[in-house]
Amino acid sequence: MKQRADLLVDAEVVLTMDAEERILLGGSVAVLADRIVAVGDRSSVHGDFDADRVIDAGDHLVMPGLVNTHTHLFGPFTRGLVNDLSFTPWIQKKFYLTSKGLNEETYYLSTLMGCLDMLKTGTTTFVDCGTCQGLEESAVRGVVEAGSRAMLSRTMADIQDDLAEFLDRPGMDTEQNLRETEAYVKEFDQSGDGRIRAWVCPIQVSSVSDDLALGAMEIAQKYDVGFAIHSNVDREDIANHHTLFGLRPIERFHKLGILNERFLGTHMGWLSDLEVQLLRDSGASAVHCPSASMKGGYGAISKGKFPELLQEEVTVGLGTDGPAASCYHDMFREVYLAATAHKEARLDHTLISPYQALKMATHGSAKAVLMADEIGSLEVGKKADLIALDLMRPEWVPWHEDNLISNLVYSSTGSSVDLVIVDGRIVVEDSCILTIDEQWLLREMQGKVAPFVQLSREWDQKFWPQARGRL
Ligand SMILES: [Zn+2]
Q: Of 57, 137, 205, 346, whose CB count within 10 A is highest?
């Protein structure tokens, strides 16, 4: 007798990204509630399961949803407004716009916009690194409605330095930060049917005292959540940190005893050999955001040690960064950069294969967000987070067994994605999002951008006149 499933997805290709690296031609995935209950040849899955619905994704490649380990939901209104500045003024301008411009309504819209952008390009899970204090409910509401899976990491900072100069939020008191963040984790963790994890986010290595970092990790351990932080971003970041603490960031966190598998350091472009070893030995994770580095001139490609981190089997996730940084949310473009940029920088075509880059966006990112057993591959028992890409598009044809991974990484983008399932629920079908009124959202965003443009011009005039009028 056949078993029951809610949904069967048939596809020309099923790219499992599992430990055996199985690629099934003519495969099927069976889904029951929020879980995958079968992955295999079409005939055997259909022989074992009866489903309420069968999606015939012929001419499609089905794979796990991508995991974006770094973005900022506060960013969409600032898209394209914060360019070509060095590290400190770039952060100052970003916070000037967002802390003065966002309110409950616009942060909710901004959250929906980020989710829309990610879902339609195949990202089913993401880390928001810096969920705004005071506006947390807007972010949670947006993610719940959009249907994404997310780690919403609440911003904390308690050092009033150059980076915090323009920051209206958050409050700078260490104890208050920790108290409110613990209350936030208690209230929102596991909301949205468990799709939302409420993480802690000491925002930036130089903006966080030892006490705040220690307290944040204590909360992360107590509630079994992650600890996200911007770390080792570029030369300026390392210099700022050294001035304040007399150590490189990863050395300091090692000394504090908070480097562990919950530690998610983002950018990590300037690591010493010792810091690479400390990451390896502690099980901490590094997030690679190649597009943000290339646009911001951070040095993660030309000076970074991502090939070495992979070699040392450090967990490395991929991230787009927010729309004020890289300006886009398409993780396939990030995979492309991870698979190409290091070859150029080191003059070595053997570095980071296309499949390795894909693994960073799936398995690696899933491990980095503490969900390696739940997402990141298509396997029985894992969450039903999967996407389908249309193979009959100009960027794919001709495709065949021998160029499949190459086409996926080097030729395709997130525009090929036309079906997205999160937690067993179809959220994008035939390239249309089912959870959000897309046209309404686009018009709302467009209609509410004027104050952000005004703030951008105001900042340029007051603080960085040389940035004005650049084309
Ligand atoms: Zn960031």
A: 205
